[in-house]
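Input record, target 12 of the design panel.
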């Protein structure tokens, strides 16, 4: 492989970690990390590696289709579970531990399905970069003894992208994604209507060719667009089309964040509180 010796060692270590599980169910979103993890798991364990994807209002249909297509292409057994976050007690109020509530419910269902299928280990795709941000979902991962092999192998996001490219995975340069609930200000209600508004808005930007996007929603009808700095001019080129479409989706006000795209930007509201 065309990678450094150090990265090759991490990759080999990852395969040994997965081999030690014997069988594995990967929580599979179709994103960069879980696709890489699933590919390696399937390479190492074959039919003893399965994928489980959650269906919910906060998970766009495009991502679900990509997850299904990947498993079909790779010959990986793929299951779906219904995990409707809005039905979880307290979730819709968007508390600071929202991600914990969601992950606890989700992984409880995944563990039950894995046990039903005779699979020993449930694993998720967090990496070393996830250690530095506010990630309450990782508390649920720890409580339920869900494995995090990419973190165990000390792989960073960029290293996962580099290895994905070497393996010929289509996700090696895919934009980072987090569930649509992360677009809401903590303490502001999450509703099916507003999730749909955000989903449509981000899909429009992706269809226009933007690579990494977030549409954050403030209150009932203000959109704050985050794109990479080198695509600021492109926003202005399409501003009338974007503004008109966003208003059709339900936004009265459409703004652009001058700091550009960044992960966890809503966590700043926690720091203020």
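The sequence produced for target 12 reads:
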């Amino acid at each position: 492989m065309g990678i450094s010796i150090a990265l090759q060692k991490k990759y080999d270590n990852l395969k040994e970690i997965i081999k030690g599980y014997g069988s594995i169910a990967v929580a599979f979103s179709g994103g960069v990390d879980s696709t890489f993890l699933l590919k390696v798991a399937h390479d190492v364990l074959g039919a003893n590696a399965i994928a489980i994807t959650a269906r919910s209002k906060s998970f766009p249909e495009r991502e679900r289709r990509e997850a299904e297509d990947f498993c079909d292409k790779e010959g990986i057994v793929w299951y779906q579970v219904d995990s409707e976050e809005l039905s979880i007690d307290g979730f819709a109020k968007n508390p600071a531990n929202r991600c914990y509530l969601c992950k606890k419910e989700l992984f409880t269902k995944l563990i039950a399905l894995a046990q039903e299928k005779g699979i020993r280990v449930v694993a998720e795709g967090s990496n070393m970069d996830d250690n530095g941000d506010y990630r309450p979902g990782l508390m649920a991962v720890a409580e339920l003894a869900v494995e995090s092999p990419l973190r165990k192998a000390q792989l960073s996001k960029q290293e996962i992208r580099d290895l994905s490219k070497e393996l010929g995975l289509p996700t090696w340069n895919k934009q980072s994604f987090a569930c649509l609930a992360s677009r809401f200000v903590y303490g502001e209600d999450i509703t099916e209507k507003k999730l749909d508004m955000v989903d449509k808005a981000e899909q429009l930007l992706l269809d226009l060719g933007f690579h990494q996007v977030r549409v954050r929603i403030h209150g009932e009808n203000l959109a704050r667009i985050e794109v990479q700095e080198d695509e600021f001019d492109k926003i202005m080129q399409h501003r009338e089309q974007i503004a008109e479409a966003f208003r059709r989706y339900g936004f009265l006000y459409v703004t652009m964040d001058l700091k550009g795209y960044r992960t966890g930007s809503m966590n700043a509201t926690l720091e203020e509180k």
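The chain has two domains: 5-166, 180-272.
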